[in-house]
């Protein structure tokens, strides 16, 4: 069971709680859509590690992860175009395949502790820059999968610098395709 609480900006509604059942049988009846939430949602608090696809396409702006969450699963925030901020209280260690794909407004996220990154994790995230200075810290990754930070020609992201781990062994196909603002990359020896 995935429990989610959120606040609405309307004065008559706040502190609603919604429960998800992430099994395929039950999920069809409990999936939140942007039509159900509208544009009022500004914060989502997540209380589970098993979120595969749970919030795909939902129309919210901010996600606050509690201390026990160190993994964001496959397609968890897939195509959430208004998501600008993901706050973590404990460092993330795993970001799954397509976890943030299509989150075109997402800007900053600390990935310095991530040890495992999925394919297309940040694909088509045109506002994504790593941190405010435009530096993407990948200092704990030994491999960067295919299309991890790439985009199509219409969704060029804002990454300017990348810090790689000295233990980096591979960079997948088109991992940084169309990162046109990228100014400097220093690859570790032996790559």
Q: What is the secondary structure topology, with strand pairs?
A:
Layout: E1 2-8, E2 16-20, H1 24-30, H2 34-37, E3 41-46, E4 62-65, E5 71-72, E6 85-88, E7 94-95, E8 116-117, E9 135-138, E10 143-144, E11 161-164, E12 170-171, E13 184-185
Parallel strand pairs: 3-4, 4-6, 5-7, 7-8, 9-11, 10-12, 11-13
Antiparallel strand pairs: 1-2, 1-3
In short:
The chain has 191 residues and is mainly beta. The chain is built from 2 helices and 13 strands. Strands 2-1-3-4-6 form a 5-stranded mixed sheet.
Overview of the molecule:
The longest helix is centred in the first third of the chain and has 7 residues, at 24-30. The protein is globular. A hairpin with a 7-residue loop joins strand 1 (2-8) and strand 2. With 191 residues, it is mostly beta strands. The protein has a five-stranded mixed sheet. Helix content is 6%, strand content 24%. It contains two helices and 13 strands, in the order E-E-H-H-E-E-E-E-E-E-E-E-E-E-E.
Strand order of the largest sheet: 2-1-3-4-6
Into which percent range does the helicity of residues fall?
A: under 10%
**What oligomeric state do the depicted chains represent?**
single chain
| Count of runs of 4 or more consecutive helical residues | 2
Regions with pLDDT < 50 over 5+ consecutive residues? 1-50
> Quick check: average pLDDT?
76
Q: How does the helix and strand content classify structurally?
A: mainly beta
* Percent in strands: 15-25%
Query: Whole-number radius of gyration?
Result: 17 Å
The number of strands is: 13
Reading the helices and strands in chain order gives EEHHEEEEEEEEEEE
How far do the termini sit from each other?
A: 42 Å
Envelope shape: globular
Largest sheet: 5 strands, mixed
